[in-house]
Write a structure and sequence with these properties.
The structure is a single chain. By secondary structure, the protein is of the alpha/beta class. Among the domains are: 221 residues, Chitobiase, domain 2 (2-Layer Sandwich), CATH 3.30.379.10; 88 residues, no CATH class; 208 residues, Immunoglobulin-like (Sandwich), CATH 2.60.40.1190. It is built from 19 helices and 40 strands. Strands 27, 30, 33, 34, 35, 38, 39 and 40 form an eight-stranded mixed sheet that branches. It has a seven-stranded mixed sheet with strand order 19-18-26-25-24-23-22, covered by helices on one side. The longest helix has 18 residues.
Amino acid sequence: MTPHPGLACCRDEKQNGLSFSLLLVTPVAVHADVALVTDGKPVAEIVVAEDASGSVRTAADELQKHLQAMSGAKLAIVHHPTKEVANQVFVGKGAVPKELGFSLDGVKADGFRIVAENNHLILAGNEFDNFPESTDKFINLPRPQLQPYWEKLIGEKWRWPPINFGGYHKDLESHYHDGTGTLYAVYEFLEQLGLRWYAPIPELGIVTPELKDIKAKSQSITKEPEFPVRNFVDCKVLNSMDEFLWYKAMKVGGDRFVPIYHSFSGPMKLYNTEQPQEYYGKINGKVDYNIPRLSNPLLRDDTVRYLQKVEEHLPGMDYISIGQPDGWSQLDSDDVAAGWDKLEQRGQWGRYSDYAWDFNLDLRDRLMKLFPDKKFTVFAYGITSRIPSNLEKVPDNVTVAFTQTSASWMLPERKQELERRNEWIAHMSSPDQLYIWEYYLQHVTHYNLPPIPVIFPELMKESFAGLYDHSLGFIAEIGWTSSGDPRPPEGYPDLARPWISHIMLYLHNKLCWDRNLDIRATLDEYYTLFYGPAKKEMKEFFEFAESVWMRPLPRQVTATGGFLKQEDVDRYFDLLQRAKEKAGDTVYGKRIDGIRMEMDRLSLLFEKLKRTGPNFQIGVSKEKPLIDGDLNKPFWREQDPERHGFHPLRDMRTGEKPEHVETKVSFRWINDNSALIVGIECMEPKMNNLTETSKVEDSSSIFADDMVEIRLETAAGIRPLIGVNSAGVVFDECSTERLEDLPGFYKVGKVAVKKYPDRWTVEIQIDAKPISGERPTTFYPWGVNINRQRMAGNEPEHYMLSPSGTNFREPTCMANIFVRK
């Protein structure tokens, strides 16, 4: 949004250091401005209908709150105009007296009108309650109860449909995907007065001007969205009122709900071994539960029945979603032999499109017989991103959700998404047939990107330019904190790294309402208003961040390659330091501190990449195992043995693999980010000779025993040391280079040792939270070494996962472990 014509600012000592005066806002010459506050006193009242919806009442509350924050004057909220107050602000169409002749006729989608003339201001827009009442029984259920309740309801052990309607706020009686035009009108008017809600961070995220006098300049404007649907995927939006209202301030919502989810995983995914095996594809004769056998009639029949159940128990939605499984990347061997794999003809991104659309159109035809008025959503995702070769035109009642990552279009292979998108558009007859699923996930910790501002305004503008008049709108998947991440302070959003991620989401929503937005002017206003005296340094900081992100180099960062360099890290922090010196201990300085806090671990990045040991990709498990020392159970063995199997330990000094004794280790990460599980197998031909002198936990005598050591270094620099001898006695301690990070108490909770005639095994659960153990990624791997001291032979022997050449304690020789997305 460009600065409003006539918006002038000057310095004062208010919280944000700025005050605003309005010189001109869309004038209508024959009418007068409407005074709301004069010399800090209210001269108007807010009128809202008694039967107003929750979102309209919220609009009135938000107007009252922010006007009071600007001026100190609290306008009364009433249901009918009073004679004692000269001026009225009518919030919502239902509050406007008929004699004023106000109408929303002709306003498209969830657009709005603002009328200010004589003694009244009208703020009203179209309202859309997009979620049927039938969802209430599910919204109010705690998450753990959803699946069993659904199974009982439908009489099948099929997956609860992961439809994104969880963002309903009980207090506001509104979903953040609802169309709330009146609330948008209120925020638009507040923006005219100078308010800017840049980030969902309590107190610090909003720029609030100080105004003794507030007038609504004479105007009559209509504002409509460029896209009728503008949604986000944010599963935890309800944890913070500021986050919920921030989305509404950016006018997130729409005039309809368009469900798109992995629906034909419904019968397949949750209880795969208990479902008919015909659902699943086979590779070389072996069933693979990640492969749908779309050619199988039973899977088609049961997916139709599943979607009937969804319609029966979640009625009121205009669309039925026929959505391919998440992460699907292989095809059944027989279906490959039948010619369904079109890799040679259609390339990687279209190799399964014909196959998927044979399924999609068959289900559509069947479901249309049951629900003739329904529309349908399907994915263009991964290996189905290209349009199928035999589809001349997308059927009129089908909407395609095209997945893209426009933030990476500086890479030629990623820019091809735009070509594939245009190919779909050429085969569509209506903008309602294209729905964009955009990935703004750069700041999710397990997506392996370092904590830097990801700035790409020109790519964003290019993506939007090709969608105006060609698309229904967006569902943008953004980063939120996972259960294993450090919890944000109370009242803070669950948006991942909000200080460095907010500005691009802000621009995205501005572009959803204004195709002529001057992005550079909007950013200049942001630097001025949000960073005050440090505006020059922060502009330099963000423009430098943009230049780094836009390098056409691999996103993978290593010690020798990738788009980010050590000198970049140094410059980031130098610019922030200069900005902080300019801003001082003010609200501006606190905003800069927030950015520095989120980027703090960046300073460790290249130090971690100096480890000389090998890299190990580790497996992920959805569930924690029973810690009993058994390394033959499926938890350890049902994984890709080449990537996630057991790795040998070698002689500490020579690096050679011994022939007379073998030691192996394997790692598993728990998907909820709660723990690392380590399994170590120590082959031992002389089990009767094991040395087990240590009987007391945390005794240093353990270091004279047959024992294994686990040495770790988390991304935060915390270094646990865990020793376990062959009798199951444990030594554990923790250290860090920064004493302020040292946990007050560290104890490994679950360890088991199991003995066999020819070996002994150790299984251990290392909880992540006590050691600030965020998910190990390729950018922030954990350092690890596994060391075995064997005393059962004729003399001590020492073996290491990453041999040091000297001793067990050398940290630079550590290996790296990481989890890929």
